[in-house]
Design goal:
Layout: H1 7-98, H2 103-141, H3 143-162
C-alpha cells in the first residue's frame, strides 16, 4: 500500500480539524460568557451596594428631620408653659389690685393671688420636664393615691364621653 491518503481519510481529518476548531470556539465562547457574567455580577453588586448606601443616607436624613421637629415642638411647648406661668403671675397681680385688701374677702383674695403667683413661678421655673419629674416623684411617694386619682379621672372621663 502507498502513503497516499484516501478521500475518506481526508474527510476524517477535516472533520477532526473542524471539531477541534468548534471545540476551541466553544471554549472561547464559554470563557467570554463567563467573563461577561462575572462583569454583570460585579456591576449588580456595586449597584446593590450603592442602593443600600442611598437607603441608609435617606433613613439617616429622615431620622434627623424627625429629631429636629421633635426639638422644635419641645421648645414650643416649653415656651407655652413659661408664657402660661407669666399669665398666671399677671392674673395674681390683677386679683390683688381689683379686690379688697382687708377682711375675710381680702384674705381670700390674697390666698387666691398667692396660689396663682406660686403656680406661675412653678410653671416658669420647672417647665414640662421638671413637672414630669415632679409627677413621677409624687407617684413613687404615694402609689395608692396615684392609682385612686387615676381611677377617679378615668371614671369622670368615661362619664363625660358617654353623655
Amino acid at each position: 500500500m502507498s502513503n497516499a491518503t484516501t478521500p475518506r481519510q481526508n474527510e476524517g481529518d477535516k472533520m477532526k480539524q473542524a471539531g477541534a476548531q468548534a471545540g476551541q470556539a466553544a471554549s472561547h465562547a464559554g470563557q467570554a460568557a463567563q467573563d461577561a457574567a462575572q462583569g454583570v455580577g460585579q456591576k449588580a453588586q456595586e449597584l446593590a451596594s450603592a442602593a443600600g448606601q442611598k437607603a441608609q443616607d435617606l433613613a439617616h436624613a429622615a431620622g434627623q428631620k424627625v429629631q429636629d421637629v421633635a426639638h422644635a415642638t419641645e421648645r414650643k411647648a416649653e415656651d407655652a408653659t413659661s408664657s402660661l406661668g407669666g399669665s398666671l403671675k399677671t392674673a395674681a397681680d390683677k386679683v390683688r389690685q381689683n379686690t379688697p385688701q382687708e377682711g375675710m374677702l381680702g384674705r381670700a383674695s390674697e390666698a387666691v393671688a398667692s396660689t396663682l403667683e406660686r403656680g406661675g413661678s412653678y410653671l416658669q421655673e420647672k417647665n414640662l420636664g421638671g413637672m414630669a419629674n415632679d409627677l413621677t416623684d409624687m407617684i413613687k411617694r404615694y402609689p395608692i393615691g396615684a392609682v385612686m386619682v387615676g381611677v377617679g379621672l378615668g371614671f369622670l372621663l368615661g362619664r363625660t364621653l358617654r353623655s
